[in-house]
UniProtKB/TrEMBL annotation:
Residues 1-10 have a biased composition (Basic and acidic residues). Residues 1-24 are annotated as: Disordered. This is Multidrug ABC transporter permease. It comes from Phytohabitans aurantiacus. Residues 399-637 form the ABC transporter domain. Residues 74-361 form the ABC transmembrane type-1 domain.
Length: 651
């Protein structure tokens, strides 16, 4: 049974009480998190698989550093190698010092004889210390450059892919793991050089021991390898347990957020959820504690056995040294140097075993980053299909047999829609929820690529026009707008942040969206930061944010303005101001309006009615009401809500 299956069996969606009775339903399962993939690869690889991948990861880390800063990367590499050579030289110098000190004769003479070797030892130690400083300085300077290089490559990709990419669950998961890979790149570079330092130190000790006496190399391996293997096995057990507990940690993460975040605090108190959430927390934590205790016993047993074997082996090394001394096959100075070498080897091997897992885990995360960049290329707009012609002023926009299907749905969101919009018209897209209005608007705006049909601007397909120039002629006010963590003024001018914002235009746009007075009431007016995450930041209500978003659409004064449910959270007075501004564009600029409040579209030049992704009706308000179709039914339902009830109706 796999560890993940075991976790599900032990801690499924319905936790059990101590008496065996089922408790209240637990939280639903969350999708795996970014860090679980690297853990799973580590568990599946095993110890041999880890070592098999290390050379490739080392090369990859050096390549990353080399691309970011060649000088610093070369400095770290050379310093690491020279420091290893100094370690070997230092051990040999130590042996020479001991030889002179243990020689016969008066003590002053022995000390004087040892001084040259002692000076060489001091020089080697000083050089090695200086190289450590140089390595640290170079690594510190390399880190921010690696971070910038790797992170910018990711953002260059994520900000350029087509919007359809974000509809794919696999893309979202890959991107989450790739974002962790940017951090892992830095750690990978650092840990690889640390690993190299440990390996070089270990090799230095090995060389020194072989020079002293070849037989001591076997003793060195016997004394150090068991402990190192035990440490790697213990690490493997930790990875397996960590992976098996992924579902449990995800539940804990959700519970912690629910009990400690501002957004959930009102309902937690209103619905008296404190006891329920604490009960869920206790049940998951009970399971967590038991599993962690079992892990602690396994790890302790493994490391204790490794320590016992290494301790026994070390005793054997000392016995071997004693036997060699008694037989006169090794001088006392060499034996003493060997003791120092064994201790140095144990320290180096401890460093190496720790770095092996670090390099492997971070290498897997960085692989996800690299693989994501390759896969994301398929979502980039085709370079050979990008137009270069700059679009002229809008005269006519044609939607020709357009269809679009989302990857997770069996039926198309938009199916075979054809319509024409002329310059200066105000047209409305109406229909019930899920009828395809917002999807069609996104296609018209060039945000989504249709799976069938095409959009034409002044008699030419959108793909033949320069994409950036075309987007400058279109402003979109989205139903699901983003709350940008900037000032009110910057939020309104977001569409043209590459130019110097015009405060007069900003305030004029805010007035059209009924936002000017509201913004003036904020602590710093238009300079108020609209995010409580930052100091002095402010929260806005849904309706206030909707005014800011509408003002953003008016600020650009675009030839084509698409407004998707711009008044769903507005009060009646603000809504009236907004739609007066929209009607003011009529005959002068083109507007596409999406709204469920049909009273706001009666003045539209043409109304297009969608149902289940298909265009079923079109005409003016009067024509559609007279036709008695879907639009007439929806309008009648809304009108009835505003008709005063008969006397005594609510009695």
């Amino acid at each position: 049974m796999s560890s993940a299956t075991e976790e599900t069996r032990q801690h499924g969606s319905i936790p059990q009480r101590a008496d065996g009775a089922a408790s209240q339903p637990a939280l639903p399962e969350l999708r795996p998190m970014w860090w679980e993939h690297g853990m799973r690869v580590r568990v599946d690889a095993g110890l041999l698989g880890v070592f098999a991948q290390l050379p490739r990861l080392v090369v990859e880390a050096v390549r990353i550093g080399w691309r970011a800063d060649r000088a610093r990367t070369a400095t770290v590499a050379v310093s690491t190698l020279v420091a290893g050579a100094m370690a070997t030289f230092g051990l040999l110098a130590t042996q020479r010092v001991l030889v002179e000190l243990f020689a016969g004769g008066p003590t002053p003479d022995r000390v004087r004889a040892a001084l040259p070797a002692l000076a060489l030892l001091a020089a080697a130690t000083a050089v090695r210390g200086g190289l450590g400083i140089v390595t640290g300085y170079a690594l510190n300077g390399l880190t921010p450059q690696v971070n910038r290089d790797v992170e910018r490559r990711l953002f260059e990709t994520t900000s350029a892919v087509r919007l359809e990419a974000f509809d794919e669950d696999a893309f979202a998961d890959d991107m989450e793991r790739a974002s962790r890979g940017t951090e892992s790149a830095i750690v990978l570079v650092q840990e690889v050089f640390n690993l190299l330092a440990g390996v070089v130190s270990l090799l230095a000790v090995t060389v020194a021991v072989v020079v002293i006496h070849p037989l001591l190399l076997v003793a060195l391996l016997v004394a150090t390898v068991p402990n190192a293997y035990a440490a790697l096995r213990a690490g493997h057990e930790k990875f397996k347990t960590y992976l098996a507990g992924s579902a449990r940690r995800r539940r804990l993460w959700v519970l912690q957020r629910l009990m400690a975040e501002r957004i959930s605090a009102p309902e937690l108190r209103s619905y008296r959820l404190r006891g329920f959430l604490l009960d869920q927390y206790d049940r998951v934590m009970d399971a967590h504690t038991k599993i962690e205790l079992r892990l602690a016993r396994r790890v302790t047993t493994t490391t204790s056995l490794g320590a016992l074997v290494s301790g026994a082996a070390l005793a054997g090394v000392y016995a071997l040294l004693g036997a060699l001394l008694l037989k006169g096959q090794i001088p006392l100075a060499a034996a003493a140097t060997c003791v120092v070498a064994v201790q140095a080897a144990q320290r180096s091997l401890t460093l190496v075993t720790f770095q092996v897992d670090r390099v492997f885990a971070n290498g897997q995360f960085f692989n996800e980053y690299v693989n994501f960049l390759h896969r994301a290329d398929t979502y980039l707009p085709p370079a050979d299909q990008a137009g270069t012609a700059r679009p002229d002023e809008l005269r006519e926009l044609s939607v020709r047999e357009v269809s679009l299907s989302y990857p997770d749905r069996d039926t198309p969101a938009v199916h075979d829609v054809t319509l024409t919009i002329r310059a200066g018209e105000t047209v409305a897209l109406v229909g019930e929820n899920g009828s395809g209005k917002s999807t069609l608007a996104a296609i018209i705006a060039g945000l989504r690529t249709p799976t069938g049909g095409s959009i034409w601007w002044n008699g030419r397909p959108l793909r033949e026009w320069d994409r950036d120039a075309l987007h400058r002629k279109i402003a979109v006010v989205l139903q699901e707008h983003h709350k940008w963590p900037f000032t009110a003024a910057t939020n309104i001018a977001t569409g043209e942040i590459d130019a110097e914002p015009d405060r007069g235009r900003i305030e004029a746009a805010a007035s059209l969206a009924a936002a000017h007075d509201m913004i003036h009431e904020l602590p710093q007016g238009y300079d108020t930061l609209l995010d409580r995450t930052f100091k002095d930041g402010q929260d806005l209500s849904g309706g206030q944010w909707q005014r800011i978003t509408a003002a953003r659409g008016f600020y650009s004064d675009a030839e084509l303005l698409i407004m998707d449910e711009p008044s769903s959270a507005l009060d009646p007075r603000a809504e009236d101001t907004l739609f007066q501004a929209i009607r003011g564009r009529q005959g002068r600029q083109t507007t596409i309006l999406i709204t469920h409040r049909l009273a706001n579209v009666v003045h539209a030049d043409r109304i297009y009615v969608l149902e289940k992704g298909a265009l079923v009706e079109s005409g003016t308000h009067g024509q559609l009401v007279a036709a008695g179709g879907l639009y007439a039914d929806l309008f009648s339902l809304q009108s009835a809500g505003y008709t005063a009830p008969a006397a005594g109706h609510y009695s």
